[in-house]
Hints:
Blueprint: H1 3-11, H2 32-38, H3 43-48, H4 50-63, E1 69-71, H5 78-82, E2 87-90, E3 93-96, H6 103-108, H7 115-118, H8 121-133, E4 138-144, H9 146-155, H10 163-171, H11 173-197, E5 201-206, H12 217-231, E6 238-242, H13 245-252, E7 259-262, H14 268-274, E8 282-287, H15 297-310, E9 317-321, H16 331-342
Parallel strand pairs: 1-4, 4-5, 5-6, 6-7, 7-8, 8-9
Antiparallel strand pairs: 2-3
Helix pairs in contact: 4-8, 8-11, 9-10, 9-11, 10-11, 11-12, 15-16
Amino acid sequence: MNSRERFLAAARCEATDRPPVWIMRQAGRYLPEYRALKERHDFLTLVKTPELAAEVTLQPVRRFETLDAAITFSDILVIPEALGQNYRFGNGGIAMEFTLDSPEQIRRLAAADAVFEKLAYVPAAQKIVRKQLGDTRALLGFAGTPWTLATYMIEGGSAKQFSKIKALAAEQPEAFSALMEKLSDAIIIYLKMQIDAGVDAIQLFDSWAALCTAQEYEALSLKWIRKIIAALPPETPVIVFAKGMAHFAKAVAESGASVLGTDWTHSLSDIRKSLPAGTKLALQGNLDPAVLNFENAGIVRERTRAILDEMAGDNGFIFNLGHGIQPCARIENVAAMLEEISHAQR
Length: 346
């Protein structure tokens, strides 16, 4: 069983020889080879140049033979940019070029099909990667969910409270729905472009799901996730990663998703037990990313083994972190984690 077969089998809840593994943000700042490229090119240049994006995507799977999947090097905010709201990174985090603060500004956003031209560089990079990987490893595409993208667009970037997006949804529901419809349509087009380019699976990042109560989640986010999944080819596995997944797992399980990606704050076995009996749904996660920053690699091995033991015998399990790997993660810790996984038995 090669890596691609292993990953796809687990996503379908089929038996595998060991749990497949990939790492959120595995292509990035913790790798010295990425930092060397970054000295010559800024982030957006790396994202928008297919050859460079392909190189960054391939770096971690070249270094770590145990990784079963490559995830496309890009950013969730390419969708707002394609619709006319540019972004940049500053000392305070993400800054949008302007804030969407009126229904008129929402109406002035480009049509959803603008992504065909504006984001053509993403499938171009994926075709390069697919050719390099062949059939040996899985290739993942991704997008942010409408809710998570809208938080940045309405708040104008990173924020502490995210009160504006909640106010828009409550006080101007028509404007909120218009924005979410446009984002959903753009994401559907974008993901279909990635599937046509050869990706094996899609991950939807609902990084700001935890801003919602369990009661709010359906109207604010899950409704739009359902629309997106329903529009995609049913044979393409869709992973939904949500911060706070434990609170939404039952609802997301009925969204059409193939895999639930979970953060590190609840055990995977507890989330499995919370799902309706007979639910055929894979789980992905959920090592605390901070563990990879520790000086003691023995603790990394212990925490990794604990998750492997917890999920032993569960055919629908994909090992990952509970969020993206941090820039200060130690290479030797990543190697230790992957070595433990490579020795795991079903």
